[in-house]
Design goal:
single chain, about 475 residues, alpha+beta, 5-stranded antiparallel sheet, 4-stranded mixed sheet, 15 helices, about 35% helix, globular, disordered N terminus, transferase, ATP binding, Lsb6/PI4K2, ATP-binding, cell membrane
Amino acid sequence: MTKRVEKGILEDRFLVHRTTSDIDDYEVTRIKNSNSRDSNQNNERLPLLHSPSITSNMELSDNHQLTSYDTDIVDEEYIDIVKQAERAIDGGILPVRIAAGSSGSYFVRNLEGKTIGVFKPKDEEPYGRFNPKWTKWLHKTLCPCCFGRGCLIPNQGYLSEAGASIIDTKLGLNIVPKTHVVRLAAASFNYPAYQRHLITAKHEINQSVSRHIHGRRVFRPKGLPRKIGSLQLFVENYVDADVFLKLIGQNPLPDEAMNKFQRQFEKMVVLDYIIRNTDRNNSNWLVKYDVKTNNERDKLLHGLSNPLYQSEQQIDNINENDTSKADDVVITNEIHIAAIDNGLAFPFKHPDEWRAYPFHWAWLQFAKIPFSEEIKSLILPSLSDMNYVQHEICDDIQRLFSQDKHYDRRLVERQLSVIRGQILNLAQAMRDGKSPFQLVQMPGVVVERQYADITPERKHFKQKFHDRYPIFSCC
């Protein structure tokens, strides 16, 4: 069990701004472990909320109120992709089921047959009612003791996919392909047999009636019901990380390219750690490496192509130096990471049963390098601002999760507590100059939002350390 000792409200300089508005007030409380075994553990488990560098920006605004989730997508490019998918389905170009994986996920195509997205219906997730893959059904039937992941809410992978995209956007990481929750219907999806037979029977009855009484029908024409799920935009020209890592192990990239890869790798670390991804391995993140060459002579000619900027002397100089300029080539390396398959994230507690679900990237050599100043300057300002963490990140995640018909506010609040704790650890690790490998060695923290005992109308944060660990820590 997790043990904790309440230390009381922090000093006035750490108290959160109190308001007279209709929202709950917040106060910050720190909890520290009472059963640390030695001084090293005590030092490692010092309460992070006590740090002035963290609490200096923890005053919450006094006019915030959680609004309902807006299901309307405002991204015009994404909306166009959804419309292309719907037109293709209406035109008979159906989504294609992906053979790999343990769930019913589909490649969505446009009218030209080009893959434009990956759709993952909620009811076809690994333990969904209509999962077409028999492996998980056998797993559930024959081995119920190992059924699912005890730290995750079942059948919410589609929300996890969209939630990862929200975190990616809020922090400016740009490594998660745009993902939203949408509703699609297609005959290639896995529907129960009775629904297909019922629709077929209604259609045949309407046709029979229409033959005898022109223009009349018994049933309103209605197709298969739409399925709710996540639609992630498809990325092209990427390779599996496994393949890429083997290639650079045999033929190392130039230093400039490796530095860019390190920055992208650190962004993935930030994402996975905040959402506590329980399924990140080297087969579910992708890498794209582009080498571009720019001829200096061509660039110069392009700049002088406008007659207003040309002179006879300039043209003569270009002709005289034709050979030397043609050999002057600039090579630029562009490298990008795509963090896909984020459906097994956002746990409501740290893994503490059979498996630890470690981050497999922690065993790579890139994880031994401390976080760069570039990533710190990008991430730390947002993570150090409690207003931003609570109102821009946690509240948006809560609004997203609230659209599920099995929404449980208590469980979602526990998920947010894990997110806050992960953010707290990550910010502290960056300030201390730690590496991703050192980050994952830090004890798990949960920052809860609870009502105060004396004034029930107020809420405050409590920090506690995670003392219970899974039996197997390597898998």
